[in-house]
Specification:
heterodimer; A: 257 residues; alpha/beta; Rossmann fold; 6-stranded mixed β-sheet; 9 helices; 10 strands; B: 269 residues; mainly alpha; 8 helices; 88% helix; binds adenosine-5'-triphosphate; binds magnesium ion
């Protein structure tokens, strides 16, 4: 399925990152990241393994604390707000983990209900069931409702993980390698799902991947993370119109034989 | 000459390692302290997660019930059997019920229960939370605006603090039963006489000291298991370490607490 033209509001920046730095022990992972995510846009972050892509979105969601720089999400300074405000902000951000991170001890239904019943006070049983069924339907896995995560395939787990974040109607989605380790057909399904989420839930998203097909399919803009900074940012064709041997292999590996 | 050289070369690094270890130990103490503080700060705040507490109590009970029944009974029988010869020497076998009951109520029941619970419950809490940490399930709870500390840690610590004293009481009765069976078989003492003699030497302080010991043990096992699991390091190795650390640390602390509480109870007597 081809991607529809997205409605991007360039005057509305939902995530604004400036001069972000983060090191672990003596390894400087991020060395001055600047990033703007506009309302309604899908931004793909590309980069080699270990360049700090997961670290970047963990910083954005406040799971890690930066060494330097500022992170503004939906008008809140993530590094400065209180625990309570951060919790409220997180409800508006969906985070799909690299390895799905489903709660193993709970059924699919309980997984989906977990964030819902804890964040929507006074929600009725009927509303809960309706919400659960609607997100499951959105990811096309209604029949798995009573299964345990261990009974699902990798692709199904990814989709349930995405459903679990959609249930709170997030304004921002952060996808950490949504297609990694999946077969091509499932990849296409996930790519379509990401585009459907963008269109139907009006989300702005950051999609982390090294899968260029996914990048091309879902991304309105691509940012290439190189040596701790975004060194190439633009449309898919702009980013790959280069002979830089840190960038070209990504393209060659995926698209030339 | 070569040996002296190798010793002098070795010594500083060894010293440095010791210094690191001591520093790491105090850092850990501080972290545990902060963890316990956080527990008391969060446990009284809503949401209370009653359902999860009940589920965890059930888990704690079920996990250790069989082993505790078996061990408690055997401890009662063996202790009675082994004590008999020395009492026979003084012609004092009629003291057997009192002796057995003092040993069981005051020392064995809480201790045996705690050690078994540390092994069965502590390790599984450590492993469970450890694997949730490693597979980012705890992070996933965090970013969905829910409170994982409340849901995972507070519920489990409450559960062990409630359930382990109950189990210890149960262990005491099972062990006494074991003692009674052995006594009635050998001395032909009736059930009512046995129980009368068993409870006669016990005071109110003994009872409370025993119960508070079990409560402290329960809290320790829960908090240590959760601490190890919740702060587990990345990787599958971290899960094993968390489970193992939970058992070792909890057992160690249980022994120390045993000594301390016996001392404190002594002042009230
Ligand atoms: N909590 C942490 N503690 C210490 N080091 C960390 C931590 N998290 C990440 N790192 C280090 O930061 C670097 C970047 O990690 P990150 O997970 O962001 O990579 P990535 O770009 O997502 O790679 P991949 O594509 O393989 O997922 C790695 O070298 C990793 O070892
Ligand atoms: Mg990653």
């Amino acid at each position: 399925m081809e991607k529809q033209k997205a409605h991007i509001d360039k005057n509305n920046t939902v995530i604004k990152v400036r001069g972000l730095e983060k090191s672990f022990a003596d390894y400087d992972v991020l060395r001055g990241i600047d990033l703007d995510l506009y309302q309604g846009e899908n931004l793909v972050v590309l980069g080699r393994s270990g360049t700090g892509k997961s670290v970047l979105i963990k910083l954005i969601s406040g799971l890690l604390k930066p060494d330097a720089g500022s992170i503004e999400v939906l008008g809140n300074d993530v590094t400065a707000i209180s625990e309570r405000e951060l919790q409220e902000l997180r409800i508006r951000i969906g985070f799909s983990f690299q390895n799905s991170a489903l709660y193993d001890s709970m059924t699919v239904r309980k997984n989906l209900e977990f964030p819902l019943v804890r964040n929507r006070k006074g929600i009725t049983r009927d509303e809960i069931n309706k919400n659960v069924e609607s997100v499951l339907d959105a990811v096309g896995l209604s029949h798995t409702i009573n299964q345990m995560p261990s009974e699902l395939s990798g692709g199904q787990r990814k989709r349930i993980g995405i459903a679990r974040t959609l249930i709170l109607n997030p304004e921002i989605m952060l996808y950490d390698e949504p297609t990694a380790g999946l077969d091509p057909i499932t990849c296409i399904e996930i790519n379509d799902l990401i585009n459907e989420v963008q269109a139907n839930y009006k989300t702005s998203s950051i999609i982390i991947t090294h899968d260029l097909t996914c990048a091309k399919h879902t991304g309105d803009r691509i940012a290439m993370l190189l040596e701790g900074q975004f060194q190439r940012v633009g449309t898919f064709d702009e980013v790959f119109a280069t002979d830089d041997n840190r960038v070209k292999p990504f393209y060659d590996y995926n698209f030339t034989e | 000459m070569a040996t002296i050289k190798s010793i002098t070369k070795f010594a500083p690094s060894r010293f440095a390692r010791l210094k690191d270890r001591v520093a790491a130990f105090f850092l850990m103490l501080y972290r545990v302290y902060a963890f316990i503080l956080r527990f008391f700060k969060e446990v009284f705040l809503p949401p209370y997660e009653f359902k999860e507490v009940v589920r965890q109590c059930y888990e704690v009970g079920v996990r250790s019930f069989t082993l505790i029944s078996l061990t408690g009974f055997i401890v009662g029988v063996i202790f009675t059997k082994q004590s008999r010869p020395s009492l026979t020497d003084f012609g004092a076998t009629s003291w057997l019920p009192s002796l057995v009951s003092i040993a069981i109520m005051k020392a064995l029941a809480p201790l045996v229960t705690a050690l078994i619970a540390a092994g069965k419950v502590g390790s599984s809490i450590g492993a469970e939370l450890g694997s949730m940490r490693v597979t980012e399930q705890i992070d996933a709870m965090e970013v969905s605006g829910t409170k994982p500390f409340k849901f995972l840690v507070c519920t489990r610590v409450i559960a062990t603090t409630i359930t382990i004293p109950l189990l210890a009481t149960y262990t005491a009765f099972i062990a006494l039963l074991g003692g009674y069976l052995n006594v009635s078989q050998n001395e032909g003492t009736s059930y009512s006489t046995f129980m009368e003699q068993a409870f006669e030497p016990l005071t109110f302080v003994d009872f409370w000291a025993s119960l508070s010991k079990a409560i402290v043990f329960g809290f320790t096992i829960g908090i240590v298991g959760c601490y190890q699991g919740y702060n587990s390091t990345k990787g599958t190795e971290g899960v094993g370490k968390a489970a193992n650390g939970a058992v070792v640390t909890a057992m160690f602390l249980v022994f120390i607490e045993e000594v301390l509480i016996v001392q404190i109870a002594g002042w009230f007597r």
